[in-house]
Amino acid sequence: MKLLRWIVLPPVVILAMAIAVANRRPVLFSLDPFDTASPALGLEVPLFLVILVSVLAGILFGGLGAWAQARRKAAKSRGTAATGETLPALRD
User: Fold this and answer.
1) Rounded-to-integer distance, Cα 2 and Cα 4, Å
2) What is the C-alpha R_g of the chain?
3) Using CA atoms, how far apart are residues 12 and 65, in angstroms rounded to an integer?
4) Does an H or E element contain 42, and which?
5) pLDDT tier at 91 (50, 70, 90 boundaries)?
6) Contact 8, 16 (CB under 8 A)
7) Please, which residues have CB within 8 angstroms of residue 23's CB and are 6 or more apart in sequence?
8) Which of 1, 43, 48, 83 has a CA-to-CA distance to 54 between 20 and 30 Å?
9) Measured between alpha carbons, how far is 52 from 58 in angstroms, rounded to an integer?
10) 3-state DSSP helix/strand/coil percent for the chain, to nearest 5?
11) What is the DSSP letter of 76?
12) Residues 58-69: what's their mean pLDDT?
C-alpha cells in the first residue's frame, strides 16, 4: 500500500502544482446567481485557489460520508451481537 502511495502521490502533486502555476489570474468567485455584473457576495481570488478548495471540500465531504456510513454499519453489527440474537434452534 505504501508503494502504491509513492507511485500515485507524486504525479498528483505535480499536476496540482501545474494547475496552480497555470491559473494564477484572479477570477470573481460569486455566490449571487441572479446578479452577475455586481454580485452582493463575491470575492476576487486566483482560479487555482477556487479549484483546490473545491477539491479539498469534495475530499472532506466524501470522507465524512464514508466515515458516517462505516460507523452506521459498525453500530448495526454491534447492535445485533450485543443483544445476543441467534437463529432459533431446530426442534425435533
Assistant:
1) 5
2) 24
3) 23
4) strand 42-46
5) low
6) no
7) 46, 47, 48, 51
8) 1
9) 10
10) 65, 10, 25
11) H
12) 92
Report the candidate in 47, 58, 57, 48 with the shortest Cα–Cα distance to residue 15. Answer: 48
Alpha-carbon span 46 to 84, nearest angstrom: 58
Torsion angle, alpha carbons of 61, 63, 69, 71, to 10: -120
Residue appearing with cell numbers 460520508: 65
Q: Give the pLDDT confidence of 13-48 residue by residue, as tens digits.
A: 898 888 888 888 999 888 888 887 888 888 899 988
Residue 73 DSSP SS3:
helix
Q: How confident is the model at residue 84 (pLDDT cuts 50, 70, 90)?
A: low
